[in-house]
Amino acid sequence: MGAVRHSLAGRAETQLQARLLARLRDDGPLSKAQLADRLQVSRTTIGAEVARLGQLDLAVEAGPAASRGGRRSTLVDLAPDIRFAGISIGATGLSAGVTDGRLTTLLVRHRDCDIRSGPEKVLALALELLREVVAEAGVVRLAGAGIGVPGPVDFDRGVSVSPPIMPGWDGYPVRDAVSRELGCPVVLDNDVNVMAVGEQHAGVARSARDFLYVKIGTGIGCGIVVDGELYRGVDGCAGDIGHIRVDDFGPTCACGNTGCLEAFAGGAAIAREATAAAVAGRSEVLARLLAERGELTAADVGAAVGQGDAVAVQLIRDSGRRVGQVLASLVSFFNPGLIVIGGGVTALGHSLLAEIRGVTYRRSLPLATGSLPIVHSELGPEGGVIGAAKLISAAVYAPDARVG
Amino acid sequence: MGAVRHSLAGRAETQLQARLLARLRDDGPLSKAQLADRLQVSRTTIGAEVARLGQLDLAVEAGPAASRGGRRSTLVDLAPDIRFAGISIGATGLSAGVTDGRLTTLLVRHRDCDIRSGPEKVLALALELLREVVAEAGVVRLAGAGIGVPGPVDFDRGVSVSPPIMPGWDGYPVRDAVSRELGCPVVLDNDVNVMAVGEQHAGVARSARDFLYVKIGTGIGCGIVVDGELYRGVDGCAGDIGHIRVDDFGPTCACGNTGCLEAFAGGAAIAREATAAAVAGRSEVLARLLAERGELTAADVGAAVGQGDAVAVQLIRDSGRRVGQVLASLVSFFNPGLIVIGGGVTALGHSLLAEIRGVTYRRSLPLATGSLPIVHSELGPEGGVIGAAKLISAAVYAPDARVG
Fold it and tell me: What top-level branch of life does the organism fall under (chains A, B) (predicted)?
């Protein structure tokens, strides 16, 4: 019984530490009295815990708090030199940044890369970029790093699993490899999950408890937040909506099937259709862009829309209609409070969002769309950096959590 | 500060009561030592709480526990005379039953009814049936009642909301009306939610944390369980998959739209198509059944399948294919660990389930279906009674919960 009591006390302490540090991260400096109220423990317990966290260089006393009447309380803050790294890897580019303990970004850098060049090359590039950021921001020590990659992840093991658009990554131990390089704890998640978390922490989803983050980049994926927490599904592949079949026939997808949403509506699909239109002489604007640049991207289609090109407008509308079709089903099923649309293709501007909105609202039950905002991401790629940093902060602040 | 401490203590006590009674409900009689271990509180605290719950007629001491070495502990059980009622209302029939405090059903009765005859009539019938059950089972006092209805519900307010197949029910205060009649607390939920909870408590989903319960009756709906808890969505209409649009055209649905899953694949749709085939002379078997009975139901189509009728087989396969199509999308999105298929149409037998399985597995990502059982409900309508009783038991055991 003694051993059981001891381990229970240890667990309670761990939970208190995690809750206290998460409060300071999300709500800013708080007085000991406020912490006692919010965490429902005594001021004596808070005092002892803050002293212990001070010795661990995680929290500091930051002077007297504003008076609430009665005895003045002491303000507590996160240690000012806590630094987290966030790396968000997409199919064609990556972002690396560092944040303080409260996840305010100190510096973020972006770089082009091709996910298909394999894990060694891409991770070396990501670490090189992160080291530049770390040096430039004067970071002495990283408390941990979070990484997002554009495909399914086994979160517990920290590896990529059967990623359709990531040849060479299947089973690669991303978490452990990066942890070894950086000498700090690392967590690995799906890119849409880290973006959803970032948008929830610092972006347009701040007040949302149940929402979807839909990323339309080269591929299409969805982060799912249930009651404020990421929902990953039993195999960690929840939100893999890019491979929902929207038609019995259609172009072959990177996953090998036909009829996938991604193969109709993702950035790669839009570029492919635009190239076909240019080559076939169906669009002068796209043909000129193709001649100038050698290849077309989804961004070029956006430029053609800006020049009033009818084919480009139709491509965007087709993409938005397919995405809206799938979202309407998900709205009926999941009844979210908010849908955030992010990813590179959203740079195409309002026409895509308008089409997605129109189809989603038209095809869903009125009850589920009565108050359902469908909005653009506020943070863009920086959201991935903040979200990745948040995931590792949760692991670092809760010392029992299993991280690499 | 004194007042705050007091209310915190009150809340902790409430939570302890709810957790303790839920343990006794779900795990059976437990010794005080086991309760202390599982709830992570001291044996002294357990002793005091059990004494308090004894005065409230909720728990009793049930003699000495088996020895675990050392001092012998006392066994604690739920009070033996706790009785809950569960009422599960479908489009064409209802079930009413009573359970003990541990949700073992003492007696369940079924009766045909037509949901379209409106709330006064249907609820009067349900209460009449429940009173018969209560009398026959010798119940002296109901601690509470749970009700499921076949349409969206505002759970907090206890009313039906815009139910497509339930004319006259929109905004009807079901919970308060029934609570007044029975003189006990009542909770109201969607029929698929209560069935999902029942199957989780006593049926095929006992070990599942993340699963879907898909009911194919007159209409089609889905209960969603996330991390062991019902997920209702922000407006309470999550799981309304019957109105996902599976085709741009198609028969008009009860909701007024065209192309809804339910209008293709629900029991009413199967009966409608079978009648058309019988009238057009495309199926001798169905024509004979129609002549004999005056109208055809989905069950008649099942009988025709049993007689090898090709048209009936095709109707079932078409229904299964449409359902599988939608489930494949939901599997990609939600990555559940189990799908339970329930509702009246499942009485059609294995051919429907086989078709649903085939299409769902074929169209989903391999990662998400590697270990995804798709199985029939074990409990049938009794599951709804148990689930409804479980929802009210949670409210009764947690005295602060808001119920009518």
Answer: Bacteria
